[in-house]
Design a protein that fits this description.
Elements: H1 49-107, H2 110-120, H3 124-132
């Protein structure tokens, strides 16, 4: 009967086999002495120290290289993230600059300048006499305190 409710004693495979009795018809010679059978213990093979150290050094080298590779990838990731942040800042600054350029164009328009001059009390007669005199325009503003001669 095989394994029954946890009792291994009933397992037929685990039963010790009976030794067969061998008739001793041959005479034993002195060269062929048989020793009583000992249980053969499993052979424990030890690895030489040099091989152990070599394997340990290889494992350590692989670990160090792995750490260096991961560190390098971390640096690359951080660099790429800083590049993305910088690009976003550049785009924001470019949009702000274009908005400021539009405001400058609006503020420098001749119609607005003329309207602002009238609000501040400047008269148009001075600007007309300056253009009528035939003076060359140098693009530089006139110095304060100097009068335009007709």
């Amino acid at each position: 009967m095989a394994y029954y409710q946890g009792n291994l004693a009933l397992d037929e495979k685990k039963r010790p086999q009976r030794r067969k009795v061998v008739p001793q018809t041959q005479k034993k010679t002195t060269k062929q002495q048989t020793y009583p059978s000992r249980k053969q213990q499993p052979r424990v093979s030890t690895i030489p120290t040099k091989v152990k150290l070599t394997r340990l050094a290889c494992v350590a080298l692989i670990a160090i290289v792995s750490v260096l590779v991961m560190w390098r990838y971390t640096q690359l990731y951080q660099t790429s993230m800083s590049i993305k942040d910088t690009q976003q800042k550049i785009k924001a600054l470019q949009s702000e600059a274009s908005t400021l350029r539009q405001q400058v164009e609006i503020l420098q328009s001749p119609e607005r300048l003329q309207q602002k001059a009238l609000e501040l009390g400047f008269s148009q007669s001075l600007s007309k006499t300056a253009t009528d005199t035939g003076n060359k325009k140098t693009g530089k503003p006139a110095k304060q305190g100097t009068a335009i001669k007709p």
